[in-house]
Amino acid sequence: MAIAFHVNGEPVSTEAAPDTRLIWILREHLKLTGTKISCGMGVCGACIIHLNGEAVRSCTLPVSAAEGKAVTTIEGLSRDRSHPLQKAWIEEQVPQCGYCQSGQIMQAATLLAANASPTREEIIRHMDGNLCRCGTYGRILRAIERASKEG
């Protein structure tokens, strides 16, 4: 039985087993490789996407959980990379290896959608649990602050 949902505004369906992890559908079936898989256990945050506007870890989410819902990946956050966070990420030179960045941006986007002017403490609290092996946390914080001011 097909599982139908929307990805970045487009209707999609899959015949995959209902317990297939959503990240595999996004990356392997739909070729949306901006969402990364790192730990595979929902710990690091590299796989964060939006499900009906909420940040979720797609490496542990079964595709059946997306049935009838809207999924947004980093590719769908902004078609032309004009989202304030994407611009701020470049301005603040956040990425080093870049592997965690799509998850970081997607997590930060849910914060700014709910709170356009978060305090430094609110940003830190919201981003807690998103790991960056390169340690660019200071630049990530500055980028979110910049996006909140320029967004």
Describe, in plain words, how this protein is organized in 3D.
It is a single chain. With 151 residues, this protein is of the alpha+beta class. The protein contains 6 helices and 5 strands, in the order E-E-H-E-E-E-H-H-H-H-H. The protein has a 5-stranded mixed β-sheet with strand order 2-1-5-3-4. The protein folds into 2 domains: 3-77, Ubiquitin-like (UB roll) (Roll); 84-150, [2Fe-2S]-binding domain (DNA polymerase, domain 1, Orthogonal Bundle), CATH 1.10.150.
Task: List the SSEs and their pairings.
Layout: E1 3-7, E2 10-14, H1 22-29, E3 48-51, E4 54-57, E5 70-72, H2 74-77, H3 84-91, H4 101-114, H5 120-127, H6 137-150
Parallel strand pairs: 1-5
Antiparallel strand pairs: 1-2, 3-4, 3-5
**Terminal residue distance:** 42 Å
Largest sheet: 5 strands, mixed
Q: What structural category arises from helix and sheet content?
A: alpha+beta
User: What is the correct CATH architecture of the largest domain?
Assistant: Roll
The H-level CATH homologous superfamily of the largest domain, spelled out, is Beta-grasp domain
